[in-house]
Amino acid sequence: MEIDHTMRTYDGQCHCGAVRYQARTDLAAMMDCNCTNCRRRGWVLQSVPAADFRLLAGEDELTTYRFNTGRIAHLFCRHCGIQPFARGRDGEGNELVMLNVNCLEGLPVIDRSTIMHWDGLHR
């Protein structure tokens, strides 16, 4: 089953469900990254404007990890350790949220050959 690239609202959560959110996206710009963090976690990422993201539960259950330039807030559930999303800014300074697509509900299996590659290791 192929991913439908229609703009829609997805529900997402960490493994234990303490952190839950909704995000509006078309999933048309999914990517992977070869930085040490993303590579080790096996992330598939999708960037959305902060206005298209809503945290429903778990703000107090999140813990933050920053590395390298420290510009991205990598947010983890303090109970199950899953990183369902991260917060940061794009090159123009706009607030964005990077979704961990693997934490979204109701998706078909992702064909990794169809997603873009980001060389985060050498930036």
Number of domains: 1
Q: At CATH's second level, what is the architecture?
A: Beta Complex
CATH topology: Metal Binding Protein, Guanine Nucleotide Exchange Factor, Chain A
What class do helices, strands and sheet pairing give? mainly beta
Roughly what is the average pLDDT, rounded to an integer? 88
List the secondary-structure elements in sequence, H or E.
EEEHEEEEEEE
Strand order of the largest sheet: 4-9-8-7-6
Q: Work out the helix count.
A: 1
Report the span from N to C terminus: 34 Å
Helix content bin: under 10%
Radius of gyration: 14 Å
CATH class: Mainly Beta
Task: Quickly describe the structure.
The chain is 5% helix and 39% strand.
Describe the structure.
This protein has about 120 residues and is mainly beta. The longest helix has 6 residues, at about 35-40. The termini are far apart. The model has no long low-confidence stretch (mean pLDDT about 90). The chain has one helix at about 35-40; strands at about 10-15, 20-25, 30-35, 45-50, 55, 60-65, 75, 85-90, 95-100, 115-120. The protein has 1 helix and 10 strands, in the order βββαβββββββ.
Layout: helices, strands, pairs:
Layout: E1 8-13, E2 20-25, E3 31-33, H1 36-41, E4 45-49, E5 53-57, E6 62-65, E7 73-77, E8 85-89, E9 95-100, E10 116-118
Parallel strand pairs: 3-10
Antiparallel strand pairs: 1-2, 2-5, 4-9, 6-7, 7-8, 8-9
